[in-house]
Specification:
about 0% strand, TPR-like_helical_dom_sf, NMDA receptor-regulated protein 1-domain-containing protein, TPR_rpt, receptor
């Protein structure tokens, strides 16, 4: 039965509870709720509000218990069910939250607040049919608000019902008694949004017609011009499209998209370089200061035409003293002929300076000879970068040109940064870090150089130094210090680099801590959509809102998420294969190099006990330091953020709990699933998927990843090694390991990839002979050979032979060293030979 209504005084108190919750006066609201409950201990709605306020105070378990009691007292109260849904939403359990909201609507179907909350969750979960239904009910309840009409149109649009979406927008426009004012931004955006919907439905002719009709009332003139040019081109009305793109280029002559549109509208063959160049010459003459009409022709010109255009372009930038000149043209280095011509031109510029009297430049005017020639300085800088580029790397020549530049201008920051980069590419990360720090000290107020210095410190595994460097630009009084501020500011590049550094050092706990921090940041970005579902409709920014939703759908294909996820998967695979690595002192990356796997069972037991004791001491020490820091902060200031929300204490600062998970492969799936969904074209993702599924004995899923990887790059060395590994694993399967018809499918598919009767050793040797000039492929074949014959004593010698290959890179040489370590082979001779090939590389320096 429905509960009796509260007395007048208690009803007033209940309204005060609601107001206190809305204004975040939680303690006052809780006191008022308890006052009501003293007289009415079984009043369900008051209990529900008490639970909601309790949850806001951080006592989640207690809040759920109170909310359940409220439902027991009043199962038919929409308030109780609504609160129950809000509690689940705060815990990000959106499915249960939606169920609770729907129950609330059974008892109060007209509630706008519950409908809005339900609609927010439905669009967040991409339940577009449900979102359409909820938006329709909201519109029926309050049809006078434009945002409700727009919300329903967006719901139809996202669900693919373009005609319905357009019809909703059209009907609202028909209800307007007075035309909107010229400055009505919301109406302007709604008109353009309707135009986008028409265009996405495929009716381009009608989209153009509609655009022409709304162009006068639209405030976003650039979008109108861009849409019009695009529609005309798609309708093959090329003369009009050409005029439209020329109008756009007259407004912005730097946008490449406009030039591409102009080329297509003029019907110029991409091979007709003379006609293409004529376009850019025209805009160069019109816009003498524009860069794009000078730079773009360098992409398609060849031979003497390219040389002439490149000469003009390079001299203009070098004489002007533009530090980013090399960055502007390095994309051309993929073409060997262009690369040689660029070098010839720049060296010619440098040679001419020794024989001809230079014209005055930025740094040398009115007879002032005290400053260096800008032209010569940046020409030397360009040549330094040329010889440091991976396609033309010659660190000796790069250093020679750089030293000449430093003699001209010893205090130029870019020169010192490039010197650090040269050391990095030669493999001396310590010197690279030191040089980058010297560059930072030349300009301590520059955040960019500060960031570069921290990055170099992380690459050299100096994590504390990197954090100290970053602290120069962070709020060090934030909860958790500089690292806490970087986490709060979601500085993904630092957290990812920090995690990869700890992984290199073998500190798997802290590596996982950082990778999970990246996972949380991306979860937060997903949850941040909540703020925009209602805000964008209220402000009328619909086109940007739809673009944001589509971007969010592919969010976890972001390069930093991919890096962090692959790093985490690698760690969890290591923990599955060698559980002792959960204890940092037993990991292969530790400084003492404990060989746990080479110990006897008794020694292993002792080492494991010792590692656990050391880890417990480290945890206790970390807890003491955290407690001391907390006391110091409490002594000087309140440990709370601006809105009064208390920060949660980190109970696992070293990541030991993450590393000691009992089901590492299950946790790895949290990282793997979004990668396979959103980045299936990345071969490293498919290889990671294979490794995880193989260990989980999900044979068909492992096969699926292997097939996808082979479609991407059949001759990839990792894929080759995984193919052999999978063939061996399937051949050794017992009847109970996989049942029919799965076994039949598995056998048939694998037979088409690598037949069962194939001699795996011969197959592997054939792969090795086919790719004997590729270090990566040799590494993959040798890893597979070790799998087939662990006693093979020739692997180390053959691996050392790769060091004589001309195309060997430093990274590949280090990978060879890592392979020897993984195979537990002697690497002294390899290191000696590698140090002769890469004399500055610290990785191959051995101590006597």
């Amino acid at each position: 039965m429905p509960q009796a209504p509260l007395a007048s005084k208690d009803g007033s108190l209940f309204r005060q509870v609601l107001k206190c919750y809305e204004t975040k006066q939680y303690k006052k609201g809780l006191k008022a709720a308890e006052q009501i409950l003293r007289k009415n201990p079984k009043h369900g709605e008051t209990l529900a509000m008490k639970g909601l306020i309790t949850n806001s105070l951080g006592r989640t378990e207690e809040a759920f218990a109170i909310a359940k009691e409220a439902l027991r007292q009043d199962m038919k109260s929409h308030v109780c069910w609504h609160v129950y849904g809000l509690l689940y939403r705060s815990e990000k359990n959106f499915e249960e939250s939606i169920k609770a909201y729907k129950m609330a609507l059974r008892f109060e179907p007209e509630s706008q607040q519950i409908l809005r909350d339900l609609a927010l969750l439905q669009v967040q979960m991409r339940d577009y049919p449900g979102y359409v239904e909820s938006r329709g009910k909201i519109l029926q309840g309050r049809p006078q608000l434009r945002q409700n009409w727009t919300g329903l149109a967006v719901a139809h649009h996202l669900s693919g019902s373009y005609a319905e979406a357009e019809n909703v927008l059209k009907k609202y426009e028909e209800t307007l008694k007075n035309p909107p004012s010229k400055g009505d931004i919301e109406h302007s955006e709604a008109c353009l949004y309707r135009n986008v919907v028409i265009a996405e439905s495929g009716d381009i002719a009608r989209a153009l017609e509609h655009l022409e009709s709304v162009a006068k009332v639209s405030l976003d003139k650039i979008s109108v011009m861009e849409y019009r040019a695009d529609y005309l081109l798609r309708l093959d009305r090329k003369e009009e499209a050409e005029k439209a793109y020329r109008a756009l280029l007259n407004r912005n002559s730097e946008k490449r998209q406009y030039y591409r549109g102009l080329e297509r509208s003029m019907g110029i063959d991409p091979e007709d370089r003379k006609a293409l160049k004529a376009i850019y010459d025209e805009f160069t003459e019109k816009n003498p200061r524009s860069d794009a009409p000078r730079r773009i022709p360098l992409d398609f010109l060849k031979g003497e035409d390219f040389k002439q255009a490149a000469s003009v372009y390079l001299q203009k930038l070098l004489k002007k003293g533009v530090p980013s000149t090399f960055a502007n043209i390095k994309a051309l280095y993929a073409d060997a002929a262009k690369r040689e011509m660029i070098l010839e031109l720049v060296e010619g510029c440098l040679a001419s300076m020794g024989t001809e009297e230079e014209a005055p430049t930025n740094g040398e005017t009115n007879g002032d000879k005290s400053k260096p020639s800008e032209f010569k300085l940046w020409t030397l800088y360009f040549l330094t970068q040329h010889y440091d580029h991976h396609r033309t790397r010659d660190t000796a020549k790069a250093s020679e040109y750089l030293n000449q530049a430093l003699e001209l201008s010893p205090s130029t920051v870019e020169l010192h940064m490039t010197q650090a980069r040269i050391y990095k590419h030669s493999g001396d990360f310590q010197k690279a870090m030191e040089k980058m720090n010297q560059a930072r000290e030349l300009d301590t107020k520059d955040r960019y150089i500060n960031t570069k210095c921290a990055k170099y410190q992380l690459r050299n595994d100096r994590n504390e130094d990197a954090l100290k460097t970053m602290s120069l630009f962070t709020r060090n009084d934030a909860h958790g210090g500089p690292l806490g501020d970087l986490l709060e500011m979601q500085c993904v590049w630092f957290i990812t680099e920090d995690g990869e550094s700890y992984l290199r050092q073998g500190n798997l706990g802290l590596a996982l801590k950082r990778f999970h921090a990246i996972l949380k940041i991306f979860d937060d970005w997903t949850e941040d959509q909540f703020d925009f579902h209602s805000f964008s409709l209220r402000k009328g920014q619909i086109r940007s809102y739809v673009t944001m939703l589509r971007w969010e759908d592919t969010l976890r294909s972001h390069p930093f998420f991919v890096r962090a996820a692959l790093g985490a998967i690698r760690v969890y695979i290591m923990l599955h294969d060698r559980p002792h690595l959960a204890h940092s002192s037993l990991s292969n990356g530790n400084r003492e190099g404990t060989d746990f796997e080479g110990m006897s069972p008794a020694d292993r037991k002792k080492a494991l006990k010792k590692a656990k004791r050391e880890q417990q001491k480290a945890q206790e020490k970390a807890a003491e330091l955290a407690a001391k820091a907390k006391e110091d902060k409490a002594r000087n200031a309140q440990v709370s953020n601006a809105d009064g929300e208390m920060k949660k204490e980190d109970t696992d600062p070293l990541g030991n709990a993450l590393a000691q998970t009992k089901e590492p492969l299950e946790v790895a799936m949290r990282f793997l699933a979004p990668l396979l969904e959103l980045s299936p074209k990345r071969i490293e993702v498919q290889c990671a998927g294979f490794d995880v599924y193989l260990r989980r004995k999900k044979w068909l899923l492992a096969l699926k990843c292997l097939i996808a990887a082979r479609e991407l790059e059949k001759e990839n060395p990792v894929v080759h090694e995984q193919t052999i590994r999978f063939r061996r694993a399937v051949d050794s399967l017992a009847d109970e390991d996989i049942k029919e018809p799965s076994r039949e499918v598995l056998t048939a598919e694998l037979e088409s990839i690598l037949p069962k009767e194939t001699d795996l050793k011969s197959y592997n040797e054939g792969f090795l002979n086919s790719h004997k000039d590729s270090p990566k492929h040799v590494h993959g074949a040798l890893r597979a050979r070790h799998l087939l014959n662990p006693e093979d004593a020739n692997i180390a010698d053959e691996l050392a032979n790769t060091l004589s290959l001309e195309n060997l890179t430093l990274k590949e040489a280090i990978e060879g060293q890592t392979l020897l370590t993984d195979l537990k082979a002697e690497n002294k001779d390899y290191n000696q030979k590698a140090s002769e090939r890469f004399p500055d590389a610290a990785a191959f320096q051995t101590t006597a």
